[in-house]
Amino acid sequence: MVSGTRSVQSQAEIDFSKEDFDKLGIKYPVCQTFCPAEVDGDTCKCKRKRSRHRDRAPHDAKKWESAIRTDLLPAHYGRLANDAWFAHLDIETELKKVEKLLFELWKLPEPKLIISIIGGAKFFKLTDRLESNFIKGIVSVAEKANSWIVTNGYQVGIVQLVGQALEKVRLRNNDSKMIAIGICKWGSVKNVHKLTTIKNNAKNKRRINRSDDSDEDENSHDIIRRGECHLEMNHTHYLMLDDGRYRYFNSKDFRTKLCSYIAKKPIQKKQSKAQTPAVTIVVEGGLDTIANIYYDLKNNIPVVIINGSGRAADFLSRWFSYAKNVETDPKYAEEVYGIDELGTNLLSQEPIETKTQKKSKNRVDVHADLHLDLSKKKLRELFHKYENEMREDLRNLLYRDDDSNKKKAEKQEPDTKLLDTLDQVMFCLQPGLRSQITVYNLDSDNDLSETIFESICKAYNKSPKDKTNKKGIDERSALLDLAMGWNCIYVAKEFVFQNSLDNIQDRNKYFIHALTHNLPTFVYEFLKLGLNPADVFFSKTFASRQNRRYKTFIDTLYTNDLITNGKPETHLKYFIDVSEQDDRTCVVTVKKLNSVLRDIIGDYMYDLYFNTEDEEQDHRIKWGLTQRHEQKHRNNSKDVESRMTSTTAAQAEKASKYIMRDLFLWAILMNRIDMAKVFLCFVKYRICPALIATKILKEYYAKTIYGTTKDEYEANIKYFEKYAIDCLDECNQEDPDRACQLVVQQNELYGYVTCLQVASDARDEKFIARPSSAQAMHCIWFDKINKKKTDNLSYVALMFGIFSLGFLASPLVRYRENEK
């Protein structure tokens, strides 16, 4: 069944011609020299019939590897039925050409993370834990971090499960931009020629049909033969590799090399020298999975093993724990010992022409071979306590995968595959590479995204580089960007912040990102480490007469997108007046912001936001909120100069107080409650802002009809009211008279409102009923009369004072004494 997967970009957006593709020079091999297989003399090692070859005379099978490279045909490309791009290419294609295909022709966006998923196929079994803990987690990570997901592209095992999860994401969000690349073998895809000709033009069809030299017949279309699988149709792109063979899954280390190349290759869109993080997730799997892990670790790609998923993953998790105490000299603990693959590659180089060169070359080969033999011997020494048990454990895994190996064991034949895999296992588990491996337990309560991010950070810290240079700072910034995308604060604190902001380049940008993307834990970390939001949103001349000091603040945080589409939902949009000239639901001026606050809180609150210092002072003088002699003082030019010099520190302190207030009110208005709680921790006086929060949320509550949003508003209203009550009670225990004053004093920072005003308007009955509030209202009622002398005789004296029009009040009524 063909899925309705949408490609990342439409056909119109990706515009390139056949000539553009041909310029890449990508080709693919075709076997034309018949080399009979051991089982069937009429079938070549490429698994095609003799009649399909140009040279049909039997040749030595040992020469097949070199013969297959002699015929390379121009590759082809196109779209599949699910609108996904594919390209048929040689497995030995230069990575530079593949890079151009991905970025220049297919126009893939630059990844922030490359996630390879390898593992279970034949014996894979889905469990509830695997589906809930892993699949949901990995898709969530990829969706949040703008990642590439790279798999083998076959509709089997864990890849099939990932494909189903991708389909659900696209059904839920039709505009999803997730990239899923399947790197499969052309000859192992069932009905590959039929799949690749469905949606392509006639010219390309003829080109593909001319290369249709497979051994498929009409009777085999519905039969899944050994070495082939259906294509998983929920990926967005497919790289179909070809080594000339059919029904042969092995793609060597192409995936590893491509991921490593893309991660290290500087892309033009990148503004820094940071590499793109890459990580491999291992779920279940067999011996091929172990080989892929070996390739990844050789290329410094960290690996996360899902313990509890079965087979190879459980085997490696088990031995990762068993072998953690491998004895080694501390000076060799960081050294990585190789195995003999490198020696084989060196020894297989082309012969040298001259005798001198040949002699020199032989010396290099012998030296490399001896060095690798010593490394292999060192690995054996490291694991000598565990080697026999590890071999038997691995043998059980091998026999389950391949019955032919079991027959070899019964005949007591040497099992080279087992020994090679054992070497790969020891290579992966050696002390110098253990930091590149992270084990995630399916039974764990830990978040998978944090585990993945932790593995990337450990690999970064392990890499030899100067953390003070430009590249090191760029990579830390890239890791912070990734951590914020996943909201992994604990790992970011350990590996990125490290109790200092000196590791963060352009910290203001990341602070704003944390605000707009609702990341309160990151905001708290920035504030705790000393970042001053006033430096982010206000210019250095906070008291300047010309600057619009709130322009950056309003343009950044009160945008139409945040108000209308922000998460969580806010009802601020219902309090913003929309005019015919501007139908945007946003706040663009301080005048409009002041108007919104008056509509929500009440007209007893004076304006909070002003463009300049002079505008603020004029407003206060106009409404009698400050003394007029201050205006005369400001008009004296000499006084202005001295004031600007002498009060720089005071202005900086004022700016800090203002911005904390502004950010708290913004968080409440945007219904970002956790963010508001963070800013409330950094506000000096907290009772009044907490009561203002209850007033705003009650106005939002009244606009909400029903649903979870209404319930959340109600819960948050209770939280802030209780917060204000707790603060007031603490003050009352310390000093009842001062607590009483706090309730009725005007708060200059919040438009000269009083706590009692806001609580009364918001109908915070529990706050009003507190002893301090009751005492404050008692004081207001009695004014200057001594409220402590309120017995019956005092009431009689008060009545005489009233009826005598005040003539008898002075000798009879007792007044309060002046208090210092």
TrEMBL record:
TRPM-like domain boundaries: 508-769
Family annotation (InterPro entries): TRPM (IPR050927), TRPM-like (IPR057366), TRPM_SLOG (IPR041491)
Protein location: Membrane
Any one cellular-component term (Gene Ontology): plasma membrane
Protein name (Swiss-Prot/TrEMBL): TRPM SLOG domain-containing protein
Transmembrane segment boundaries: 793-813
Molecular functions (GO terms): ligand-gated calcium channel activity
Tagged with keyword Amino-acid biosynthesis: no
Keywords: Ion channel, Ion transport, Membrane, Transmembrane, Transmembrane helix, Transport
Domain TRPM SLOG: 85-325
Organism: Rotaria magnacalcarata
Signal peptide: none
Bilayer topology term: Multi-pass membrane protein
